[in-house]
Amino acid sequence: MNTAYLEEANPWEAQVARSDVAARKLNLDEGLWKILREPSREIIVHIPVQIDDGTLESFTGFRVQHSIGRGPAKGGIRYGPNVTLDETRALASWMTWKCALVNIPFGGAAGGVICDPDMMSKRELERLTRRYTAELIEVLGPEKDVLGPDINTDEQIMAWIMDTYSMHVRHTVTAVVTGKPLELGGSKGRNEATGRGLMIVCDEALKRLRMNRDQTRVIIQGFGNVGSNAARLMSRRGYKIIGVSKSTGGLYNGNGMDVNALWMYYKRNNSIEGFTGAEEADPAELLLRESEILIPAAAENQITSRNADRVKARILCEGANGPTTANADDILADKRVFVIPDILANSGGVTVSYFEWVQDRQGYFWLESEVNDQLDHTMRTSFAEVLQYAETHDVSNRIAAYMLAIDRVAYTLRQRGIYA
Fold first, then answer.
1. pLDDT (tens digit, 9 = 90+) per residue, 348-384?
2. If you placed Cys at 341, which of 4, 249, 267, 398 could pair as Cys (CB 3.0 to 4.6 Å)?
3. Order of strands, sheet of 315-317, starting from the edge strand that comes earlier in the sequence
């Protein structure tokens, strides 16, 4: 793999490339941008964990707090063999801009542990999670840094984090994490929130482009929490889901799939392979098939300079963080692809996480309809603000989203007296 492509695929460099352009467009003070550009704190921990066979293993974990200017840091934690500090930096920065874009009072953070959760028992994962939490106890908390689920972490992991933190402070603190089980202070609507947010911004894009929903074909990369919920919700609303993929394989049916049948099959088999309601398709090739909406909802660096010229979708709605590289942006712009950038498109998750945090702190929980109504209002408002910013400043939707987010964080720091 050549050096140029390695740089293109680095998520931190991709984030910096877009945010630097946005800061220049805003004529942001150079000193202020130096503060906003870099994370405020980066922590590396080495976590000793006893494996089930009695041996000790050391795992490396990260927590990056990019900004706390607008409120407590907020961000997920990933488990995976390819977790890196640069990826964690990028995710923390994206979360800062995401929270500012939807105007919720959080800063950005992210965490991760280098491990292979597929090769670990539940007991080993619990030990790892509790030790990771204990190592970071001084920097976590409802008013400091609020964790949430991400790739390979779920509500059980969040429950262990909440319990470990609560044991250390000697009282139950539900608001230290979001994405928890309902019985432990989770919010109704949280599980579907990111997928629902994707559906809402796709609805708004169709209105903007004067397209009909019942004639809109959708391809979704990823069938985890985000992709599966987006598929189910959009199918119910009348979208035609013609393609779905995971890393292990893909499915295609030009007439549209029975998404509920696919979901039930996936729940039974933990795989989409072998589903008879569609033909098998190569996941990489599926990204390039003709559709009205393409939703990459799996991982970073899926649309790059190597394949962006072959994207045939009218709308690219980014369900994952960083699925499109900076080098691909100009290619997509030349093709007049309408991009709904990740920091807008997938912000439904952190928006409802904020609602969960609020409910935990109030000790009063909302109806699911209230959660969904508030999410709907937030997503539609943010979509309109980004498009208005793009028109006013004659920039792409992505740069407009970064400009609006950076402007809000910069304004907060100025008002707080950062120069004092």
1. 999 999 999 999 999 999 999 999 999 999 999 999 9
2. 398
3. 279-281, 249-252, 240-246, 217-221, 293-296, 315-317, 338-340
